[in-house]
Amino acid sequence: MTNPPLSDHSTIGELEAAGANVTAICRSCGTAASVNLRTMRLSFGAATPLRRIALRIACTGCGAADCSVHVTDSRDD
Length: 77
Description:
By secondary structure, this protein is an alpha+beta fold. The chain has 3 helices and 3 strands, in the order αββααβ. The protein has one domain (about 10-75). The longest helix is centred in the middle third of the chain and has 8 residues, at about 35-45.
């Protein structure tokens, strides 16, 4: 049985349980930062889709609220 692919449509709980790595990359300045899924789960709940939270992520470098979110599935390693 194969696991369904993880993406920004996955929930925080699914991503955390799979050990996924999530990176936010600012479209304005290029700053990249790792997203702490535990903190996101505690703040927004395990059933919240990453896509919904991604709209709220602001760059730690320039403050722009224009970040893309990239999911790396550790199950493929």
